[in-house]
Amino acid sequence: MNEDPQQQPATVRLRGTLAAVPAYKPGKPASGPAGRPSYKISSNENPYPPLPSVLEAITMAAQQVNRYPDMAVTALTEAIAQRFNVAPERVATGTGSVGVLGQLMMITCEPGDEVVYAWRSFEAYPIIAALAGATSVAVPLTDTAEHNLEAMTAAISARTRLVLICTPNNPTGPSISGAALRDFLDEVPSETLVVIDEAYLEFNTDPDAPDALALAADYPNVAVLRTFSKAYGLAGLRIGYAVAPVEVATALRKAATPFGVSDLAQQAAIASLDAFDELQERVDSLVVERDRVRSALLAQGWAIPATQANFVWFPLGDATLDFAAAAAEKGLTVRPFAGEGVRATIGEPEANDLLIHVASDFRDSVSRVQRDKGVQS
Q: How do residues 253-293 score in pLDDT, each as one tens digit?
């Protein structure tokens, strides 16, 4: 048998910065005991399938996949501009909001520049910053799992090119108030771009939540980042966008991967915007389920942070991996962040019921162990 030449050690020279790039850990697929239902709540996905009208748009677009898509994503850009009453020149699309975020890093950061963000927050932030050669400045969350805006202000330096604000925050859930965010923006130097990442915007029912587009209109150094992956249920098609100052949006289009946004994604997104009243019913039902789950967990004694996203956060610390393993034994796949906590997405009611059950059993088992240790000592 001939030896595969690709098994030989590579001699090509790769960028030294790769050694410092953390690996992104995607949510694992659902798995569990044979013969029992299993649920994946490890990725922040919408559990509902596409609406019939959206599926029809995808089916129609699929008949033209032999053709390149419109590189300018013109129809969707105009649809977003009309829907949110912004100039089309301020809209830039990409392969999910994380794709647009990568473009934002490319157009703002050079090696040695700094990117300020809260931590823990979206797992891709340090990865994309490192790939851009930028230095991450991660500011710890407060004890209530919220952004510490005062500390983030203090962390901004002359080298800061980008500040990332994730609201509601992934993976912990809290939202920043509009007043607090406006006060923060008043302190940020005008040459530093502030990106308000609103991947979970549609789930946010907090009356004090910021109007990010209004902030972007008032502050010339603010960009708003959004996605069709969550509330719109198009995670598999990879489509997101930014509303930014014209100069920033123009630069984003320069940095975009040519033909990166497929026509399937574009047509599905347009159809989803047109059908948002129907989609809103699904979002509303997920919000009801989110609040039901959190209330049940609080009643069990869990310190679950206030969440305005489509997930809940268990601050488990060293017990994180034990909880994830206990959930997996029952057929529930959650997203552990070792040493910190577990994020659990709100899914089907059956999945949510199972999460409540797993959480209750885990607390009971921990209490039994603690009691046993107390008796032994």
A: 999 999 999 999 999 999 999 999 999 999 999 999 999 99
Q: Annotate 157-174 with b (16+ C-beta within 10 A) or e (fewer).
A: eeebbbbbbbbbbbbbbb
* Whether 342 contacts 303, CB under 8 Å: no
Residue with token string 């984003």: 252
Q: What is the pLDDT of residues 166-208, one digit of tens each?
A: 999 999 999 999 999 999 999 999 999 999 999 999 999 999 9
| Torsion region of 263: left, alpha or beta (phi above 0 gives left; psi -120 to 50 gives alpha) | alpha
Cβ atoms of residues 69 and 262 within 8 Å: yes
